[in-house]
Amino acid sequence: MVACVGGLAADAIAGARDGCVRAVFERSAYVELGSQWLCVGGSGLGRGPLNALVGVNDALHGWLAALQPGERVAGSWPRFKGGGVELDFASAVRWHPAKPALPIDRECLARGVVNVRSAARSRVPADGLGFLVGVVASSGPLACIGRDASRALRDWLANFRCPPPPSLGALIGLGPGLTPSGDDFLGGALVALHAFGKMDPAKALGDWLLPLCANATHPVSVAHLAAAARGEGGEALHACLCALAEGRDANDALDAIAAVGHTSGWDALAGAMAVAAAT
Questions:
Q1: CA 252, CA 243: separation in Å to the nearest integer?
Q2: Residue 105 and residue 107: Cα distance in Å, rounded?
C-alpha cells in the first residue's frame, strides 16, 4: 500500500501499462512505469516529486531483498505488480511542494540568505559543494569547479541571456554517487528559479541542461533533474526555499537538508543559494 506519492510522478504514470525495475538498494528501488521513474521506499525516504512512500516497512524490506533489476512491472493505474508485490496507489496522498508567495520580497530574501549562510557555516560537510552555502573555504578540483560554476550562474542571472554559460556544463555528472554533487547543484538552482518566479531563466536552463545530461550522468540523476526542470525537488529543499524567501530562521530547515543523502541536500541548497543571492 502506497501512503504518499509525488503528484508529478503520479500524473505521469496514470496512463502507464507496464514498466521495469531499474535499480534496487537497501532501502528503496527505482521503478520505471511508462517513461516515468519512481522511487519506492519507506517514510524515511522523505517526500519528493518522484517518491512513493510505503507505509508497511516490513513488507517493503522483504520486497527489496527479493527484487532484482530488470524485473517486469505490469498493471494499470492505480495498481501495479512487480516482484510478487502489488503497488497500490488507490489511497495514496499526492504530495506537491510548498512554494513561496510571489512576488518575492527582496529584503526578506536578503535576510534569509544571511540567516542560512550564518547557520550553515559550522555544519556544512567536508565533501561536496555545501561549502558554497556557508561561503567557507574548500579546496580540490570539485570545489574549484563548483566555485567557478556558482559565480558563472550568478553572473548569468544578473545579466540574463540565452544560452546559459558553458562553464555550467562542467557540473554535469561531477562527483560520486547516483546523483553527483554537480547534478544536485543544478537541480537545486532549477527548483529555486521556479520558486522565486524566475521563469525565463528556469526554462532556458532546463532546455539547455536536459539534452546534455541524458548521456552524461546516471539515469537516476536525469530523472531528478527532469523533475527539477519542472520546479519540483525534495521537501527539505522546498522548506528551505520558503524560509529563505520569508527571511526566517533556517536551523530546522538545515537539519532536514543535512539528512538528505550523503551530501545531496547540501549540494542542492548550494545551487539554490546561488539563485537566491542573484535574486
A1: 10
A2: 6
- Helices 251-258 & 235-246, crossing angle to 10 degrees? 160
- Supply the DSSP string of 93-157, one letter for each residue: EEE------SS--HHHHHHHHHHHHHHHTTT--SSTTTHHHHT----SHHHHHHHHHHHHHHHHH
Q: Which grid coordinates are listed for 225? A: 533533474
- Per the CB < 8 A criterion, the answer to whether 36 and 13 are in contact is yes
Q: What is the DSSP string of 164-207?
A: --GGGGGGTT-SSSSS-HHHHHHHHHHHHHHHTT-HHHHHHHHH
| Closest C-alpha to 225, from 192, 168, 267, 179 | 179
Q: pLDDT in tens for each of the 279 residues of the chain?
A: 899 999 999 999 988 888 999 999 988 999 999 889 999 999 888 999 999 999 767 778 888 888 899 999 999 999 998 888 888 999 999 999 999 999 999 999 999 999 999 999 889 998 999 999 987 777 788 889 999 999 999 999 998 888 899 989 999 999 988 899 999 999 999 999 999 999 999 999 999 999 999 889 999 999 999 999 999 999 999 999 999 999 998 888 899 999 998 899 999 999 999 999 998
User: What is the H or E stretch that residue 78 is in?
Assistant: none
CB 245 within 8 A of CB 216: no
Domains defined along the chain, listed by start: 2-95 (2.30.30), 106-278 (no CATH)
- Closest among 91, 96, 85, 72 to 16, alpha carbons compared: 72
Instruction: Please tell me the distance from the alpha carbon of residue 120 to that of residue 198, in angstroms, as a whole number.
Output: 25
Question: Amino acid letter at 137?
Answer: A
